[in-house]
């Protein structure tokens, strides 16, 4: 990230569902990625006017790496707040996440995902993020100083 630039962040509040839970009544570890994806979708709509614009950019953005630290179990029918913050974008896209208990503010989970751009025309992975993405991030920073 370039110096003196603020991170772009977004949050979503949601209530965990019965189908999110395992037999012990806590959210199954694989379902956390659905929460991360929703927060990331909202984050990307801050950068692109429509999430569809990112999808129409000529690139797909597969997740190539992830890390999750499960701090406190999340029960079903529990209100959570999920934050997503863009922390890298020049060579790859890294988004950091924190899941909080929406009532107490207690941190329950932290994670990150790393994505890279892959050209839909050639199927080749890009070693730098395409300008269609970096220009949008730079514009967001210019407007939101």
UniProtKB/TrEMBL annotation:
Entry keyword set: Hydrolase
GO molecular function, one term: fatty acyl-CoA hydrolase activity
Keyword Secreted: no
Pfam family, one: 4HBT_2
Domain of life of the source: Bacteria
InterPro entries per record: 4-hydroxybenzoyl-CoA_TE, HotDog_dom_sf
Transmembrane segments: none
Database matches in PANTHER family: 4-HYDROXYBENZOYL-COA THIOESTERASE FAMILY MEMBER (PTHR31793), NOVEL THIOESTERASE SUPERFAMILY DOMAIN AND SAPOSIN A-TYPE DOMAIN CONTAINING PROTEIN (0610012H03RIK) (PTHR31793:SF27)
Similarity remark: Belongs to the 4-hydroxybenzoyl-CoA thioesterase family.
Protein name: 4-hydroxybenzoyl-CoA thioesterase
């Amino acid at each position: 990230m370039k110096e003196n630039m603020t991170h772009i962040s977004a949050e979503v509040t949601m209530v965990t569902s019965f189908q999110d839970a395992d037999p012990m009544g806590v959210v199954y570890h694989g379902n956390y990625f659905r929460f991360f994806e929703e927060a990331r979708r909202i984050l990307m709509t801050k950068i692109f006017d429509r999430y569809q614009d990112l999808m129409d950019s000529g690139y797909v953005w597969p997740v190539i790496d992830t890390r999750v630290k499960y701090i406190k179990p999340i029960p079903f029918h529990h209100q959570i707040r999920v934050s997503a913050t863009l922390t890298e974008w020049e060579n790859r896209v890294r988004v950091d996440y924190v899941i909080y208990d929406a009532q107490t503010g207690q941190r329950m989970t932290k994670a990150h995902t790393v994505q890279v751009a892959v050209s839909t025309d050639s199927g080749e992975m890009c070693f730098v993020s395409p300008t269609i993405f970096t220009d949008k991030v730079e514009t967001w920073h210019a407007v939101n100083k």
